């Protein structure tokens, strides 16, 4: 039963994780690529779309929430195969050695992926090296072992599920709960102790655990009133009242922003085919502004509700730079430390009418932590690619 749940859940996790990687547009260059030298593993990358605008919010919300919900199922599955993990002799033949190696990759890979993912969303990432790199390569190692394991065990799982009635098993009380018959893998103890829990109780325990984790996690992605139930999510708490009452991923202080960077001397540079244009914030505010209702969605699984942004369309700025058909734009921030100080956006992201250099949000000037004096906001874009504290836009063919 636990294997069947993982057989459905793990591929969904892998697919949504692969989509998350594609959403960063890593093939645009080193600015976006947190996982260099991906080689053949990047075969599937494509131009990440801007429609629907909530796409990344959905895919990453599913990825993180499902990953957390599957933890009790994973623990139940690992508990059921503990004897296999410590059997002796570890290797009895070449075939047995290959099977043990695949088991090591499978169990080690799934533990590594779940642990790194959960630590990352809890803001306690402690592993050496980039989370993106380790999680990406770890996912491919794990999914390769998973596919091999499924090929070897799918028939056996199917026969086991068909060998008895699920309803009958779930109705069996403790007094009538008997051990499994001996199996060829030696998972069943030869002299088991008397049962202390029914199979219904084991399935129920895992199910209640998964349901509880769903309740305390999903609200960070769903939003609305459910946000208050996301006790397991660090970003379920809002930073304060007023128009800026929505989540902050990184503060100005955390990335070295000080008043000198964003004070009266701040200027926006717009580069392209035409001579470089330089604007003060007052000049930008005097231009024709446009509005967009868009959320911010993060790799950690949290997202905001739709916020009312106001600013200049990126496509208009591209035209001012002499490249109305710009194929990409390099966005640079004044932040002095931290990842994603600069990112590259695709042409389809530039030319979406909802893609803005935002100056205001929810009827007020941006706060410093939300990117004052100007920030990027693009539909379906990962949060870290919606660069804050922007000071230069370089449009390219």
Automatic annotation (TrEMBL):
Keyword Membrane: yes
InterPro entries membership: OxRdtase_Mopterin-bd_dom (IPR000572), OxRdtase_Mopterin-bd_sf (IPR036374)
Domain Oxidoreductase molybdopterin-binding: 265-396
Domain of life the protein comes from: Bacteria
Record keywords: Membrane, Transmembrane, Transmembrane helix
Keyword flag Lipid biosynthesis: no
SUPFAM superfamilies named among the record's database cross-references: Oxidoreductase molybdopterin-binding domain (SSF56524)
Annotated protein name in UniProt: Oxidoreductase molybdopterin-binding domain-containing protein
């Amino acid at each position: 039963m636990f294997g069947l749940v993982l057989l459905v859940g793990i591929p969904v996790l892998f697919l949504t994780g692969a989509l998350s990687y594609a959403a960063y547009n890593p093939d645009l260059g080193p600015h976006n690529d947190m996982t260099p030298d991906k080689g053949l593993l990047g075969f599937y990358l494509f131009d990440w779309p801007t429609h629907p605008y909530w796409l990344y919010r959905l895919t990453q919300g599913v990825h993180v929430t499902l990953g957390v919900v599957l933890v009790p199922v994973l623990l139940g599955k690992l508990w059921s195969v503990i004897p296999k993990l410590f059997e002796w002799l570890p290797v009895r033949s070449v075939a047995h050695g290959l099977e043990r190696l695949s088991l090591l990759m499978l169990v080690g890979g799934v533990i590594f992926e779940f642990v790194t993912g959960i630590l990352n969303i809890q803001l306690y990432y402690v592993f050496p090296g980039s989370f993106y790199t380790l999680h990406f390569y770890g996912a491919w190692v794990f999914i390769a072992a998973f596919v091999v394991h499924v090929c070897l065990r799918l028939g056996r799982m199917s026969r086991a599920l068909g060998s008895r009635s699920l309803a009958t098993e779930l109705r069996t009380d403790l007094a009538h709960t008997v051990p499994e018959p001996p199996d060829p893998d030696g998972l069943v103890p030869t002299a088991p102790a008397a049962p202390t829990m029914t199979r219904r109780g084991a399935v129920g325990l895992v199910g209640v655990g998964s349901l509880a984790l769903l309740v305390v996690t999903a609200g960070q992605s769903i939003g609305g009133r459910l946000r208050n139930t996301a006790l397991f999510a660090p970003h379920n708490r809002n930073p304060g009242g007023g128009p800026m009452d929505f989540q902050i991923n990184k503060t100005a202080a955390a990335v070295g922003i000080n008043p000198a960077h964003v004070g009266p001397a701040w200027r926006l540079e717009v580069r392209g085919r035409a001579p470089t244009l330089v604007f003060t914030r007052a000049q930008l505010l005097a231009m024709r502004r446009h509005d967009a209702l868009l959320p911010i969605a993060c790799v950690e699984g949290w997202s905001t509700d739709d916020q009312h942004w106001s600013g200049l369309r990126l496509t208009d700025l591209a035209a001012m730079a002499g490249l109305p058909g710009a194929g990409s734009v390099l966005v640079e921030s004044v932040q002095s430390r931290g990842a994603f100080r600069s990112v590259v956006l695709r042409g389809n992201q530039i030319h979406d009418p909802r893609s803005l250099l935002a100056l205001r949000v929810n009827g007020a000037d941006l706060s410093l932590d939300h990117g004052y004096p100007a920030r990027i906001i693009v539909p379906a874009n990962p949060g870290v690619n919606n660069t804050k504290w922007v000071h230069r836009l370089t449009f390219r063919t």
